[in-house]
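Cont'd.
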Amino acid sequence: MGKILIVDDTLFMRTLLKNILFSGSHDIVGEAENGEEAVEKFKSLKPDLVTMDVVMPKMNGIEALKEITTMNPSAKVIMCTAVGQEQMVKLAIKSGAKGYIVKPFQAPKVLEEVQNVLKQ
Amino acid sequence: MKSLPAKIDNNGSWVAANIQLDEKIIHLPEPMKVDIPLKSIDDLQQKKNILELSVKGKEGQIYRIASVPKALTILKKVILMGCSGYRLMAYFMSPAIRGGVMIKDAKWEKGAIVVLKSRIWFVGQDSQICLPIMDVSAIEKTTRDVQGKKTEVVKIDHVETGEVTTSYVLCPPTTLEVLFNYLTEATKDISMDQDLDPISAQVAMLVYSGMDTHAIENMLNSTNPEIEAIYDKMIELGMVEVVLTRREVKLTTKGVRFVTEAVKPPTN
């Protein structure tokens, strides 16, 4: 079970992820709605894992991922994006993402991926 | 001509036989003694170790052949490459995404895509993957990064044991268009011709993600009758089906009495 920071610009997606992660007995230590806030909360909350949306205002998920992995190269970040943006995978993996989920997603698979990344 | 050990369903009883096959015909020996031209086969499905071949022209004519996996793999490949379905040489990646999670070791396989009456088959060097058309939830064109280049591909989503699984097909642009149109036509029965209002769309997304009614009510800050009304609409549109009906109850006088008694301290 891990302490998780959820980053997504839509309340709906954050709530959905929160419900899924709660059902897997994870602790949600914080939420952020853009990349800047994500970087700040990562510093202060020190989560075990971050779920990071890619397309967000102010600072996008890839930029936030780069800042987070510069701060902590072993940070565990799962990128989360919509169908059709899968080409971002390579960029995200190159930037240090440990996993990738595509919206819409199904709860058991999300929990499996979170578990896999937490074990790494 | 190849010979494969198998059992053939002969009017309900399984008969051991060596079936013969070449690039044009499957020969089922005695007691059936039938030649099945590959071109007459318009559907193929596998149920565990049994292959079901459907032959066009003769209504309801189905042949069932059981064998070991290795023999069935050979037989399937010969049938799929010679039958009367829509066939296209292509690269495919299946599965590429399962339940929203990318499959890390997914790779492009060279082979063919074959669209039959009720099934889409991917035929690779060593694997044959089947997607029932009735389980296909979406067909669309999208772009993928292929060897560093953004390339147009056809994306096929299908539901497999409750999980939405995504496969990709890659072929030259002109054939890709033809394939996309063909698949869209083959799966038109499952397409939605009506838009949902935003709240209903959110409910659909939450159901997709595996949320139960109670969680949906909490997440959307809605009442049970509101969610029930949305379910009714979705049932009418054929988008969902009822799998469980929960009940809310209140205690009768007898129940209240039981609880009251149950909490009394024991008397000696």
